[in-house]
Every structure is written in structure tokens, then in C-alpha cells.
Amino acid sequence: MSEQRESLVHVRDLRKSYGDFEAVRGIDLDVWKGEAFGFLGPNGAGKSSTMRMIGAVSPASGGTLRILGLDPATDGPSIRARLGVCPQDDTLDTELTVRENLTIYGRYFGLSRAECRLRADELLEFVALTEKAKVKVDELSGGMKRRLTIARSLVSKPDLLLLDEPTTGLDPQARHLLWDKLFRLKQAGVTLIITTHYMDEAEQLCDRLVVMDGGLIAAEGSPAELIRDYSTREVTELRFGPDVMLADHDALAGKVEDLAQRIEVLPDRLLLYTDDGERAVAAVHERGLQPAAVLVRRSTLEDVFLRLTGRTLVD
Amino acid sequence: MALAVENGRRMFDYWLTVYKRTWKGTMISSFLLPMLYLAAMGIGLGSFVDSNGTGALGGVSYLQFIAPGLLASTAMQIAVGESTYPVMSGLKWQKFYHSMIATPLRPADVVYGQLAFIAFRVLSSCAVFLVIITLFGGLRSPLGVLGLPVALLVGMAVAGPIAAYATTLENDSGFAMIFRFGVVPAFLFSGAFFPVSQLPNWIEWLAYVSPLWHAVDLSRNLSFGTVNPWLALVNVVYLLAWFIAGTWLAVRGFTRKLIR
């Protein structure tokens, strides 16, 4: 992190409370110009609250927040004029056509009607919805609505694009198409801030990310750094078949725990976190254990995520 | 102020675009219903009332008596309609207000744009209705056309408070209250169909509190050419006070809901 880079979002000890509930409990971060920055975390981690504060529609309860060098408490409209926001729920106007949704939104930014029409056509091309221009939003599929919402967030040519769970609820084809569009935006120099709980999405898109949990930042770094710091290079998964109970797994884990840096016992399998998965497999066999199935894979952000935020379900 | 006007204008564009799609439906409620009232009450009931002589109404036909009041009532009903369900939709159903404030627009701009559109709806519908009234001979003097700005005033007087109320609701069941205990009684008892002096004393006072009575009274006095400047001033100031207080409440309500 070199300090000469321009910080588009500067956050120190940022807090947000709703009544007695503290959603964000003091976080520090910088988002640099041109990067794709991710917020990962389970539901209720404080991602969306943070995004709303960065979007200058939710006043901070404490701490310092500068967006594009400005203070949202006093310069909200000037900040929002340079942001693009793709909210978690589609807030499209379902009674209007696809194209009208874009032209109207451009008007909110004070663009002339002619300029709005021009940009609407460009953006429809960009998100591959030109053929649907005159269709009512009601008739679009979920993936098309997300693409339209992203197109809408770009109508003001923003310096900073905020995407709150952009691909939640989409099928794989739609997700990959969206990733492709977001990647092209990043190449065009748009700074992206993304919240997601899809690890593959974070690995695909983010240069740098933070893992949030319980309103705090649990870890920060590039996907590779996080895997290096919070997991091992590889993971060996051992399955002993459906007849082996959890208690037996605990016993089996005791027999192999020295073979890995960390072991996790799950109902159906053992996870051995190690830098050399194949060597661990060989050692397991040497000890006379006969797992029914063995898988050696690279560590992913999902391993990091589960280690940092736990496997307990958050509702 | 200039910023608020510019921003309100940007929002007004939204409502016009929506209206281009929905105006046919609103035709029925805005023109047809008051037309039916005008025909049934003014001409049907009116011929019955007038056959007993027009002395009780001060020598005017029943049609001429109710036409200015119907105009003001129509304005009120359009304004209430446009500040209930559309506001709920913007906040909760379609959530388009939330996407508006993600732009340079502020909650106050959203309110101003909404009110500007309601003003447009009230003015355009009432202008057409006024033409119809005139064709039926419902106006007694040319001053009666000033019923149009009065209609606008009463529309604005009720739109703000009701939009503010709409922001406090979790679902639309609260609107039934507005119509049952607000709009319908006001419509019937604010002097549009008979002088409120016919009412029991305490209801008569309730009528004086309602913004609609002030609009009906002013509109009728304009049509009859019987304007008392001081009373007219009270009417206008009272309606303006509702408008200003209501707008302030609406801005506060929108801000509470949208900026959290």
C-alpha cells in the first residue's frame, strides 16, 4: 500500500448504530483509485451498513469517513453525483420500460434529456439489453434486471461504483456475464467496491478485500495474501464413508493431527490443512488408515472465510 | 432554493414519464366521477330541489350551488390519492425513492418533485372539470374560474400532511382510515352539497377546521361574486398554513425513512 495512491474512500474508526444495536463497531480502511475492493462477511457482519455510509445515504454514528476527499455529512449531494450505486434489491421502476429506467435516472443527475438518451443506448449495448429497450421491466428475468440495475448505476459515469451483492440469486450464466462486465469496467479505470458472500466472486473480481464479522474487520489483504495468512496452500479432504460417526471422526482426527497444521472435523469428512496435500495422503495411508475417498485441493477464500467467521449459521 | 427547484424539476420528469403510462386509468377517477356527481346531484337532485324554489340557496340553482364545491372536492380527492399509495410504493413496494436518494437528490427534493406532480395532476384534472362545469352553466360569474387556483391550494394543503402520514405506515391498511374518516366525511360535510350551518353546532365547527370547507367556501363565493376580502384572506391563509406545515412534515417523514 503506497501512500502516494489516491484514497477514494478513507475510513477510520467508523461506527454505525441503530438504537442499541451496533452494526459497525469501528473499522479502518482505504480504497485506492482504480482497484476493485471487496467486503466479505456473513449476513449481519455490517457490510451493507458500511456500504450505505459510503454511498452517502446513511450518516455515520462515529469515526472519520471521507469519500472522494469529501465529508458525506456536509457534501452528500456532491459525493453522490460521482457515485454509481447498485443496491442489493433491484429498485427499478417496474412500470417503466428498460430504456426509460435509464433516461429517468440520468435526469436525477441533472443530465440533459438528449444526453440521457445517448447514454441509455450506449449502456443498453454494454449490458446486452438493446433488444429489450422498449420492454417493461416487469417482463425481464432476474439476470436482466441485475444487468439493468448495473447499467443504471453507470448512467452518471461514476468515479466509484458500489455494488451490494451484485450476483446474489443469479444463475451461473448470468453471474459470469456480469463478472465479465464488471471486469471490463475495472479495466476502463472505474474503482469498484463490492460486497459479496460468494468467495469465487471475490477471488474473480477483487484486488483486495476485507473480511467483516460482527461489525469489525477480521482480516484484510489480497485473495492470495489472505489464503497465505489464514489458511495453508492445500487442503486434504478425507472421507471415511457413511458408516463412520462423528465420534469416530474425532478419534481418527487424533491419529492424523500431527500431519497437518490444522485439522477440522466435519460430520462427513476430515479437513487437513497442509502445504503438501499429497504427502499428507501418503502419511495417512502409511498409518494404516483407509479413507473411502481422498481429495487434495488448493485452499480457497472459502477456507479463509470459514476459519475467520466460523461455521455457525448466522441469521 | 434554486437548487430545490432544479432538483424538484428532475424528479417531476419521473412522474410525468410514469403518468404517460397511467393517465388513461386516472381519467376515470379524475373526470368521470365528478362528472357523475355533477349530473346526478346537480341535474337530477337539482331539478327536484329547484322545483321547490331556489330561495333556500339564495336564488341560485342547485347545480350552481354545488359546482364550486365539487371542483374543490375533486382536487382534494386527487391529491389524497396521489399522496397515499404512490408514496407507499416509493418507500416500500417498488422502493424507487431509495434509488432517487442514491443520486444527488435529497429527500426534500423527492418531496418537492412529488408535490409538483400532484399540483400538475390537480390543475390538469380540475381545469378540464371546470370547462365541463362552465358548459353546464355551473358558474354564476366569470370570477368562478378562480376556483381553479383554489382547487390547487386545497390539493396542496392536504397532499403534504397525508404524504407525511404515509411515511409512518408499515402497510397500506392505514389508508382506509384516511378515506373513511377523512376524505368521505370531508366530502359530504364540508359544505359542497348544503350549507354547513344546517349541521349540528359541533359538526359545523369540525367543518370549519377542515381545509376543504375553506376551499368550498372561497370557491363558491368567487362563483357567486360574493367574496368578502377578509374572509377570503382567512381561507387562503388557512390553506397555505396547511400546505406549509404539511410540506415540512413530509420532508421530515421522508428524511426519517430514507436516511438511516
UniProtKB/TrEMBL annotation, chain A:
The keyword Plastid appears for this protein: no
Location(s) in or outside the cell: Cell membrane
Gene3D superfamilies linked: P-loop containing nucleotide triphosphate hydrolases (3.40.50.300)
InterPro entries assigned to the protein according to its UniProt record, in alphabetical order: AAA+_ATPase, ABC_transporter-like_ATP-bd, ABC_transporter-like_CS, P-loop_NTPase
Single GO molecular function: ATP binding
SMART domains, sorted: AAA
Record-linked Pfam families: ABC_tran
PROSITE patterns, per database record: ABC_TRANSPORTER_1, ABC_TRANSPORTER_2
Transmembrane segments: none
Keyword Nucleotide-binding attributed: yes
Protein name: Lipooligosaccharide transport system ATP-binding protein
Organism of origin: Kribbella kalugense
From TrEMBL, chain B:
Mode of membrane association: Multi-pass membrane protein
Listed InterPro entries: ABC2_TM, ABC2_TM_bact-type, ABC_2_transport, Nod_factor_ABC_transporter
Ranges annotated as spanning the membrane: 30-49, 61-80, 115-139, 145-166, 178-196, 230-251
GO CC terms: ATP-binding cassette (ABC) transporter complex
Record-level Gene Ontology MF annotations: ABC-type transporter activity
Coarse class of the protein's main subcellular location: membrane
Residue intervals of the ABC transmembrane type-2 domain: 25-257
Subcellular location: Cell membrane; Membrane
GO terms under biological process: response to antibiotic
UniProt key word Cell membrane: yes
Keywords: Antibiotic resistance, Cell membrane, Membrane, Transmembrane, Transmembrane helix, Transport
Alphabetized Pfam families for the sequence: ABC2_membrane
Keyword Hydrolase part of the UniProt annotation: no
Annotated coiled-coil segments of the chain: none
Family: Belongs to the ABC-2 integral membrane protein family.
PANTHER family xref list: NODULATION PROTEIN J
Identification of the protein by name: Transport permease protein
Organism: Kribbella kalugense
